[in-house]
Amino acid sequence: MKLIVGLGNYGNEYAKTRHNVGFMVVDLLAQNLNCSFNSSKFNADIATTNIKTEKVLIVKPLTYMNLSGEAVMAIANFYKIENDDIIIIHDDLDLPSGSVRIRKNGSAGGQKGMKNIIDLLKSQDIARIRIGIGKNPLIPVIDYVLGKIPTEEKETMDKAFETSCSACKLFCTSDIDLVMNRYNKR
Questions:
Q1: For the chain, which domains are there?
Q2: Helix, strand or coil for residue 46?
Q3: Whether 19 is catalytic
Q4: Which of 2, 18, 19, 169 is labelled catalytic?
Q5: Which of 14, 75, 124, 144 is the most core-located residue (most Cβ within 10 A)?
Q6: Considering the entire predicted model, what is its pTM?
Q7: Strands (E), 19-178
């Protein structure tokens, strides 16, 4: 079983903000796989599907971003999902807008949702897809990440979301090294 988690904040006021790119990716992934978020357990919205022979849970934590680990830990413990079978999708201020970088482990790099997941799962060995949102030194960080994705970045971000969906699908049938080799070269 694989666990694909998109990080974001729940509520209409956060929809389509830079901080919610993880939610946008898993929404697109569920749409592409013809499944829907029809279960709300473990403080998360969950869509269930299969990719080839692998059962896949696609998850949006209902906690706010900084407490995402609570939902991830509850689901991983209940289904006995190993850290190697989890991938997290989140925004990254330190990457140019629309870029996609995949890592199989490492620190949270300042991303508080990822930090909470690492802390609660007691491991940095958790795969993640980092989607660049860039930054603007003239705008305070909190205002920037909670700002809507501007129209001029939409096409670039849509491509990043498609790439991330493809990477998630490959993750479900291959190991993370193959996923990194294929998608980090773009």
A1: 2-183 (3.40.50.1470)
A2: strand
A3: yes
A4: 19
A5: 75
A6: 0.95
A7: 39-41, 44-51, 54-61, 86-92, 100-103, 127-132
User: pLDDT at position 186, please?
Assistant: 55
Residue 185 has pLDDT above 80, yes or no: no
> Which pLDDT tens digit goes with each residue over 123-172?
999 999 999 999 999 999 999 999 999 999 999 999 999 999 999 999 99
Write down the pLDDT at residue 64.
Answer: 86
Q: Specify the DSSP class assigned to residue 83.
A: G
